[in-house]
Amino acid sequence: MPTFERIPFTCTLDCGSRCELVACLRDGVLERIDTPEREDTVQRPRLVPCARGRAHRRMLEVRERVRTPLRRTGPRGSGRFEPISWDEALDEVAQRLAATRENFGPTAVLHATGAGSVSGVGISGASASNRFFSFWDGVSLAAGNESNYNASMAAHWMLGGTVPASDRATVLDSRLILLWGMNPAENRMGPNTEYFVAEARDRGAHVVLIDPRLTDSGVLADEWIPLRPGTDAALIAALVFCLERENAVDQEWMATHTVGYPEYRDYVLGANDGRPKDPAWAAEMTAIPADRIEALAQRYAQTQPTAILAGWGPQRARFGEQVARALITLACVGGNVGVPGGGLASLGIRGGGVRPGYMPRGPHRPKRHFSPGIWADALMDDALDPPIKMAYIVASNIINRTPDARRNVKALHHLDFVVVNEPFMTPTARHADLVLPVSIELERPDLVRSWGHDSHLFEAGQAVEPVGLARSDYAIFSGLAERMGFGEAYSQGRSEQAWVDWLRETSELDQQALANDGIWRVDPEPRVALRAFAKDPVANRLPTPSGRIEIATSAATRYGLPMVPTYLGDDTGGDPSYPLQLLTPHSKLRSNSCLQANPWLRRLEPHRAWINPKDAEPRGISDGDPVWVKSPRGTIALPAYVSERIMPGVICVYQGTWYTPDADGIDRGGCANTLTSQIESPSGGYTTHSTWVQVEKEAR
Amino acid sequence: MNAPQFWVDTSRCTGCAACLIACQDRAALGDSAWLRIISHEMGAFPLVRVAFEIVHCWHCQEPSCVAVCPVEALAQTPEGWVRLDGEACIGCGACIEACPYQCLQMGEDVVATKCDGCADWVAQGHSPVCVNACPMRALGFGALPSRPVSIAADTAYDLGTRPRVERLIRR
Question: Which of A505, A411, A390, A355 is nearest to A136 (CA)?
Fold first, then answer.
């Protein structure tokens, strides 16, 4: 009789969701991936994984897998390596770390993480490396919030903290859902976001997709309003104008719950500049006909509650702070703050939920910090004291995932030594001096927290032995710590499984639930952001200077932004050589650049540049034609997808495919970040959606 | 046991391909799959709609593949599944030609291959893996869902073979 075993696990990717996966073994061999088939209700839905999670078995043995420690033998980036033993590799890293510290000080070492196994992961990835450096010394760190930095700043100014997102399930009470630059069908951001939108629609909610593209989420929408990228604050000004004109704003609520609304109203009505921000005005900016703006305003004014489900794309642009501030203001004027089914949903992550805790840190903290936008500049800055001499990159394909891939490559060339912990031969690993092969999900145990939209904790079991000589990040850093004299402090004598047990035991877990299906699950009553504040703003002050929502705030002026969320346009465009706006959204086939090596996922959809026929025709481009997309930073080559699903003037290239330059420097991998720029928004966030490009048929 | 009955809620399918990958993983077909997803783009900017269509063997009540198989490698089971016996198949490809939904293909070992409906799995009381895999609950097996949907009046899914699938649209 064959023996069958089912080992629960979950992805540890930077995707925004944690779902229920099960490794099915027959006679100890991994046969397939499953998801539990249990009762499924809207109140307690299953956490059904997406294609990415289901495709894990194929990830184990892909061609790009790194199987042994590798030492570079050719020029950096040539891809020429020789296999070496773990002892050789770890000895060399330990020696390099020690020598760099001795000659230049610990901050000459850059520790870089992000976009891989980083968030809510108990032991692997960044948890292992952060712990290591906390015992070693105060290094330089490149890590930060690439995702929704501008929105976080806006929330900080207006609300005094993180954006308090409502639980996804609250949309079941919505009568109107605005998918504002949000694409749950492809990005999910919580295992049931797209499902809840569909359920809400079945309960009568009207769903509007406001997006430059008709994304796959368009299936769930009753109408698509194509909006020119970056003009969200103009559309919102016109919506508020209409609400004011119809006397549909609860002025008393605004007076008791917000400060500075009169200033914003003055802006919207044109009290100071004589230009009312009416639909005709906004139509010019947004490319949305004025009558559609009127109709949307009317619907918004008449429909409560409305959930504004805002994605993070719109704020990942120049003046993205204004977009986020305007969205929060729009929720206020519509009477949708603190209301079930309403909401300031999704600009942020709710936070809270189940905290398993992390492995405790040692005494050191990073002494220098570089935001992920400017890390490459820092690496090339010889005036830094000390300059960066060595980089240790963990759980991060940093060349690929941060703006301006070619500059990122140059930055790594500038260093004496680069070591990369990676399961796959990514563009970043390719530019390393030493690549240390890392195990992936299924090959290592971990304790993983759901993202803030949910309150779950997953015990991710190890189902198979690592491929080749791959080891977990934890095992790698244990070995390094041992060589550097703090092995006992680092590991406390614990194996990974012992850490999983320790993390579980030290958190408030339902042991029975874990024992049953590997998941500790809390499904509280769906939480409504700012509910208590909305009910009684005096008793439940916000942590802002006024205690209220600060629609006008001097905090913004410290960054050169106006007091109120005006529309500022985009000061990055205007070069006639690059007339098209580029969108670089997340793909349903990857999590950032992770999973790009999986042939099952790659095969689902070709990597293409979306272009409207109105832009394709004058360029002589037909569907499927090989094209170049060019920006001042670089050129990528890929086929065109000529489609009515994208508005004229806008190009879309999903981010995450691997930077692969040919002999002429043209990126044959079609990496979106070959085109994007490191320009920051005034408060410091990414501006990847303020990228201007030209598209042309590939020269033959 | 009731005859197999699939349903697809077209108002929900977002083309995420979780079903496809789950099927591919279970069926151990290497890098090919029994299930495919067709995306439809309708209309012209800005009045555009997008829809997705899942296609796999719907185990027709009057299967054209069974009718053309010269060696009876294809047959209907008493439960209603269209079963393909790979051992008996001679790889002539007649069924591949005959299926109007293009739901059979030639496998690596030069015999035809197609969705088996997870019949063994269903016999044990489970749902087919594609159904269990759907994050949108857009794909079902058995009783129709209690949602504001109705069975599509057109016969887009029936090309004369009475496939065991109902296509659901919003009421």
Answer: A390
